[in-house]
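Researcher: Next sequence.
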Amino acid sequence: MKEDLAREFNTSHRHTSPSLKFADPMVVLLLRHGLALLLAPLLIFTLLPFAAPLAMHLGLEFWGDLLYRFYSLFCHQLPQRSWFLFGPKLTYTLAEIQQAASASSPWELRAFVGTPEMGWKVAWSDRMISFYTLTPVFGLAYTMLRRLGRRSAPLPWFVLLLTLLPLAIDGGTHAINDVLTGGMSTDGFRDTNQWLAWITFNAFPGFYAGDQLGAFNWWARLMTGALAAWGVAFTVFPLLDQLFHQEAGFLADQPSRRRE
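Model: Next structure:
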């Protein structure tokens, strides 16, 4: 009985269709480049929010509005925490935006995308620019290092948790602040950062309050997002890379195993 099953198994493999014989090398090739094939669409996804202000600037309002609506599913898009392109300033204070938008609720504020005079906001907030966009960028940096022969082991999981902690604290305190103030105030503890002024003896006037370029909140979102992106990229992506290569090696060995 066992001999009959063995003969049937060998016969079935000798008569494998040409398409299946061709498929194995293709799958191996895709797996060997699996990480790059994963990062490329991820990078496109994270860069498309920059196309929204470009579309508005070019008068393609339908496409710009479509991008703003789609990416609002992933980001709050509050304009005082966003970057503006094709205008005189990269960021604007809440007072400046309220003067232009006449927004009376957080939802109206989120819906404000800019004006020809101010420029048009990116469909990511500044935190999402640093975290979402830099994650695939760091991932591509890892693949380049690997191609140069500089393989790096995945970071330990506790390092990943440490890199995510500042982002969680910064984002969490901002969320609490917005719940307490309604999201349209300039008097919340994360709007004034008076606690930081006390700690530093008010050594940097003009640095503590607001979300505009150069303020503490702006730097905090940028740095915590970049740190978290680095942690994810050099922990998760090396593990995925190892998995892809292990599967590719296993499939590549199958023909020799069959001959045996």
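Model: The beta strands are 82-85, 114-115, 119-125. DSSP finds 14 helices and three strands in the chain.
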